[in-house]
Design goal:
By secondary structure, this protein is of the alpha+beta class. The protein has 6 helices and 16 strands. A 7-stranded mixed beta sheet has the order 1-2-3-16-8-4-6, covered by helices on one side.
């Protein structure tokens, strides 16, 4: 398991996975808030259409990010995240596309398709099957973790592409740390309901609240899905308590903010 690497290109600041970067035909990036055209509370690489930022700015930001991967916004297929366990296979993109209504994971084996998801505390997990040339992108907040969306996405890739988890790479982007993810009883109860006693060591009580380590739960879930430990990269960066010049955080800022994106694509 290794840490993501911080990269810069012109004004863009983004992170890459050492494991995914081994494969030159795979393009990927976990973007920060730096390098776009938006202003005010959405400065500068904002991907959030539901904000008061203009649609023109947001579309230009998509184009800037996609160009880093050797593409453009017309090849982007984006999640419509509602903390579900819904997974959709993308077989092609005819112009900038929002996939479904409440889709938190995308998979593809089609070169040129740019899978895109969003984060502002929640985890984005990238998956790559280098043997069968297929990739996936998963949005997993605590509800997604409890709903086992990462395991389900791995299984969907096994079914659709013949992927072998032992040969797959997984990279988890910047996401909330256990010190910042302070919650009520409902979250640990749901984690125990799904995972049993194995998650107890990743949750601790402080007063009448709980601190939950979603990153280690996800790491353990990846291992249980037969992803090998040395094929997993996890960022130790937290958007909430980390560098405020690089990240928006829902926990820290509420709704008056932009949102970061991650993109992954198979080169044509």
């Amino acid at each position: 398991m290794s840490e993501l690497r911080k990269q810069t290109k012109d004004d863009l600041v983004y992170f890459t996975s050492p494991q995914l970067s081994v494969y030159p035909r795979l393009r990927h990036a976990f973007f920060t808030k730096r390098g776009g055209v938006s202003a005010g509370p959405y400065e500068s690489l904002n991907f959030r259409f539901s904000s008061e930022d203009s649609r023109e700015n947001v579309m230009e930001n998509f184009d800037i990010a996609a160009r880093l991967l050797g593409s453009d916004a017309s090849h982007v297929a984006r999640t419509t995240q509602k903390h579900t366990d819904n997974i959709v296979e993308v077989t092609g993109v005819n112009g900038f596309t929002s996939v479904g209504d409440g889709v938190d994971a995308l998979i593809t084996n089609t070169p040129g398709v740019v899978l895109c998801g969003f984060y502002a505390d929640c985890q984005l997990v990238m998956l790559y099957d280098h043997r069968n040339k297929a990739c996936g992108l998963v949005h997993a907040g605590w509800r997604g973790v409890a709903g086992e969306i990462v395991r389900k996405t791995i299984e969907r890739m096994q079914q659709r592409y013949g992927s072998n988890p032992n040969e797959m790479i997984a990279a988890v982007g910047p996401s909330i740390c256990r010190s910042c993810f302070v919650t009520d009883d409902d979250v640990p109860e749901k984690m125990r309901e799904t995972f049993g006693d194995m998650v107890q060591e990743y949750m601790y009580r402080e007063g009448d609240k709980w601190c939950v380590d979603l990153k280690n739960i996800t790491y353990t879930m990846l291992l249980r899905a037969d992803i090998l430990a040395y094929n997993i990269d996890i960022s130790n960066i937290c958007p909430c308590c980390g560098d405020k010049s690089l990240f928006w955080s829902h926990r820290r800022q509420g709704e008056n903010r932009g949102v970061q994106a991650g993109m992954i694509s198979l080169a044509e």
